[in-house]
Amino acid sequence: MRTHSHCTCWQSYPERSWIQFLVLRILYETPTYGYQLLDEIERRSYGCHKLEPGSTYTVLRRMEDKGLLSSTWERGDSGPDRRVYIVTEKGAKALKTGPSTIVRRKKLFDDLIGFYERQFEPESKGDE
């Protein structure tokens, strides 16, 4: 994908970026462990995105490798020990600067939705 020097919004696949922002947001609010994070992602995406545990832990490890997260082991009360993920200072900075990218993407999606509505919605209403 082509990237302009002044625009960093498409440096990686958008799907990965929004997942990382969502993970950062959730963990910034409440540090937690992987399976709780899975449930929270599904809840916040209104059930549209159910990630597999393996995929989620891969994302968490990559984010930890990039310095966006850190983790510590916590003893489980009634079950096994769990790794709890926490947003680092670098992760908080990424979360703070991230909305500018999201705003640019929203403008793109708004344009695509407007095109769809102008081109195809009139047809749908006539088909009823």
Could you write a compact summary of the structure shown?
The chain has 128 residues and is mainly alpha-helical.
Taking all Cα atoms into account, the compactness measure Rg is 18 Å
Side-by-side strand order of the widest sheet: 1-3-2
**Helix vs. strand class:** mainly alpha
The top level CATH class name of the domain at 14-97: Mainly Alpha
CATH topology description of the domain at 14-97: Arc Repressor Mutant, subunit A
Low-confidence stretches: 1-14
Q: How many strand segments? A: 3
Query: What about the largest sheet?
Result: 3 strands, antiparallel
What is the CATH superfamily classification of the domain at 14-97?
Winged helix-like DNA-binding domain superfamily/Winged helix DNA-binding domain
What is the CATH architecture annotation of the domain at 14-97? Orthogonal Bundle
Give average pLDDT, whole number. Answer: 82
Distance between the termini: 40 Å
Strand content: 5-15%
Shape: elongated
> Which bin fits the share of residues in helices?
55-70%
Task: Give a verbal description of the structure.
The protein is mainly α and 128 residues long. The chain has a domain at 14-97: Winged helix-like DNA-binding domain superfamily/Winged helix DNA-binding domain (Arc Repressor Mutant, subunit A), CATH 1.10.10. It has helices at 14-29, 34-44, 53-65, 89-97, 99-127; strands at 32-33, 69-74, 82-87. It has a 3-stranded antiparallel beta sheet with strand order 1-3-2. A hairpin with a 7-residue loop joins strand 2 (69-74) and strand 3 (82-87). Helix 1 packs across helix 4 (89-97). The model is unreliable at 1-14 (pLDDT under 50).
